[in-house]
Amino acid sequence: MSVVISTAKNNKKTQKKNKNQQKKKNTQVKRVMGKAMQGGLDAAVSMSPCAAKYYIASVNPFHPSATGACVPSRPTRPSQKVTTKAAFDIVVGTAGVGFCLVTPCLSKNGCYAVYSNSLYTGTTATGTNGTVGISYALNSQAPYTQSELTDSGAAASVQAAAGRIVSIAASITYTGTELNRGGLVRCFADPAHENLNGYSISDLDSRNETEMKRTDERTCWVATNAITAIELEYPDISQAPSVADAILLSSYPFSGGNCLSSNASDLDKGSAVIVLMVTGTAGNTYHVEIVQHAEYVGKLTEGKTSENFADSEGLEKALAALAKIPALKAANPKMPMGKLAKQALVSVGKELGPVALKVGKSMILAALA
Length: 369
Known about the structure:
This protein is α+β, with helices and mostly antiparallel strands. It has 8 helices and 10 strands. The termini are far apart.
């Protein structure tokens, strides 16, 4: 009997010892991983305030720290930094579908969004002029009109005003009655800024980037930012073949020169690059909020500008991190955006940090030996 007790005690001691060793090993691994992650983060966040604001504004334009965001690229002209907000309600139409198409716009009198009202009978997000049951929203807080953004004066150097969009986001929240609560909310920002006018529910369901929420969940929102070299620059409208084309270039920089539809009344409205779509009981209401960060230059901005700083390295890090977020989000659908954005920066930091640069240097030297 004593031998059995002694063996049992020894087994317990051995198990405890192994457990402590494993715990110590796990702690060491976490410490090493933590240092590696911090090293990657340190390498990635070494950027100017302009680049940092650009990243914050692109990840979450609703964040207060995004106010005053700028594009950290040349030209480094002082710019007027403007944050505009718009809010309105959309209504689910008679077929049980409601929508909002967002057309990022720099002018105060241009189409900013097209959305459904109670008379809408369609089942797709169609904002083409003449469609029954659609309404329009303006970016009324923007400082300049379409005419001011297309007036080049005597020369480009005295252009009245020119702008570029840093980022834009749209959110949607259910505001109907509890009795009629139900259905799904879908939010999507096209990563290539393609026109989403006419998109269907099945189109949205086929896109990996689509956010899908039940009406009893928190607000659904999506964002997009300046991506291409043209979008990162102030527009050149001197070669625009028509007034409509000049308006598209100057007021809708995310449209790539494309209009909302081929309808004659839509030729001076930009592409819809964000769509919010809902299904549910006809007459249900949803509250939409849009926030946009933009910069303006030109003679009309005199006395309203603040300095800009070019940070090509910081911009490269920000764009590289932003490109990683969709894949990270797909792999971690429940992870908050803040953590996803941080992980993306860590990844970029490892790829662009000192260790990665040393590896790249070794590869080049070996290849060119």
